[in-house]
Amino acid sequence: MENSEIIYGKNSVMEALIAGNREINKILISKNIHTDVKIAKIKELAIQNGVVFQFVGKEKFQPYAEFNHQGIIAQVSPIKYIELEDFIAQKSEEFRSLVILDGVEDSHNLGAIIRTCVCAGVDGIIIPSRRNVQVNSIVEKTSAGAINHIPIIKVNSLINAVQKLKDNNWWIIATDASANDNYYDVKYNDMNFVIIMGAEHAGVSKSLLKASDFIVKIPMQNDFNSLNVSNALSAIIFETLRQKLALKNNNSNR
């Protein structure tokens, strides 16, 4: 079975059952693990949702030996990606935010980015259908179930997606180590915005940089290569949240 067709680990399986937006075909639970609160909850949720679960011998887990599955695996249908047009059409009273990933190749990075985006209230993530890691079981595990709480939008062309967003009143903010402006100099509160992150070795592509309204950097104290892409995104996205919360606090104090 391909990695993209399983969820493994107690927390990830439980989150998928709670969210209810993944079609779970079957849950395999090892006979060799002791039932605890999480296993009991998973069984309860599976029964509520009509999902079959089986207690099986350790030989059933041999194909997944490379994963830290904790004795539980859910066989699932592939993730349901959201169409960009449907996302844009959604109505919101507040400004919204998106993250575009341009060439991120590591599953652990994607999982960490998804987790960060959910924690910071980002409204969606766009990934290209090629030259970028796709959602798989490692991404699912690394995100600690956060994958179930944010729309993932897959597109054939990032540049076309950016143009479509610009046509619909979204502002594009790309990251580049040689940019003149720092990420905290942008005012994120008064616009729908997109943050574009590139891979460490290549950065954001020239065509996307050219199409962007802002290009920002994270200032570095030392002459060192760069931050990991998930860490870099965390710095930027939590600055956008800080500005949002500061504005709300100022308005509530008036």
Please tell me about this protein's structure:
The protein is of the alpha/beta class and about 250 residues long. It folds into 2 domains: about 70 residues, Ribosomal protein L30/S12 (60s Ribosomal Protein L30, Chain: A); about 170 residues, Alpha/beta knot, CATH 3.40.1280.10. The chain has 8 helices and 11 strands. The chain has a 7-stranded parallel sheet with strand order 7-6-5-10-8-11-9, with helices on both faces. The radius of gyration is 20 Å and the shape is elongated. About 35% of the residues are buried. The model has no long low-confidence stretch (mean pLDDT about 90).
Number of domains: 2
Supply the CATH architecture of the largest domain.
Answer: 3-Layer(aba) Sandwich
- Over all CA atoms, what is the radius of gyration? 20 Å
Mean pLDDT over the residues: 90
Uncertain segments of ≥5 residues (pLDDT<50)?
none
Largest sheet: 7 strands, parallel
CATH fold category name of the largest domain: Alpha/beta knot
**Secondary-structure element series:** EHEHEEHEHEHEHEEEHEH
What's the CATH C level of the largest domain? Answer: Alpha Beta
What is the number of strand segments?
Answer: 11
**Lateral arrangement of strands in the main beta sheet:** 7-6-5-10-8-11-9
Derived from helix and strand composition plus strand pairing, the structural class reads alpha/beta
Please bin the fraction of helical residues: 25-40%
Separation, N- and C-terminal Cα atoms: 58 Å
Number of helices: 8
**Percent range for β-strand residues:** 15-25%
